[in-house]
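Z., the sequence and structure:
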Amino acid sequence: MRGTLVIPTLNEAASVGHVLDTFRDAAAAANRTLFHDDPIDWEMIVVDGASTDATAEIARKAGARVISEARPGYGRAYQTGFAAATGDVIATADGDATYPVDEIPRLVRRLLDEGFDFITCDRLEQLDAKAMTREHRVGNWALNFVLKVLYHRYLRAAGGTLSDSQSGMWVFRREVLARVRATQDGMPFSEELKLEVLLNGLRLKEVPIRYAERWGAPKLSSWRDGRRNLEFLVRKRLAMGRGTPVPDRNAPAAAGRRTD
């Protein structure tokens, strides 16, 4: 079996090497235990968004394939990484050491053994007090509340729910990509992907993880990114009744789109 870890980065020289080394060691240990009968051949892909520090060089030295993505956007980085991935299973995390990448092999084992299509990780249940500002916590709560209100009927029909719609750590089967329609190049990609998984009848499981304080300065703008995420949730809900896709209003005109 083959697996792919995709990590988007922007000036993560202080942490990306640690993240990749931690994952590689955990994957090797899991191949001797959890996957001893069928080891996973992992590739690590770092999608770098024009970093001005040594992120790309450090990632290559740690064994990752680095793809430069000049088009801005969190979602765009993931779509580029997914297009390049060769794994039967795909995992994601950030390059700032907030997500426990050493847990990925265990999550893959659970994905396979319990028959899920997509596992998303809940940061909020075991949140380190230093890992998220009060502003960020309030923003996450508001977005999760709005999502549950707007999509309650659809989530109930799908037999699922989302407690942390903004989490960026996922493990899923490659075939999921052919079943969902991703339109967002920016931060709304995270909530869009999870909604698409549920609304297309795929088996999603939310699993709590520990979420740590990031290494380096934060890059999120809580108000700006929160507003864009909120606008997307409303626009997607309205568009669902018309059966039309939701364009990304915040993407540059030249930004590409997935068509599968």
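DSSP finds eight helices and seven strands in the chain. Residues 2-240 form a domain with the Spore Coat Polysaccharide Biosynthesis Protein SpsA; Chain A fold (CATH 3.90.550.10).

Let me know what you think.
H.
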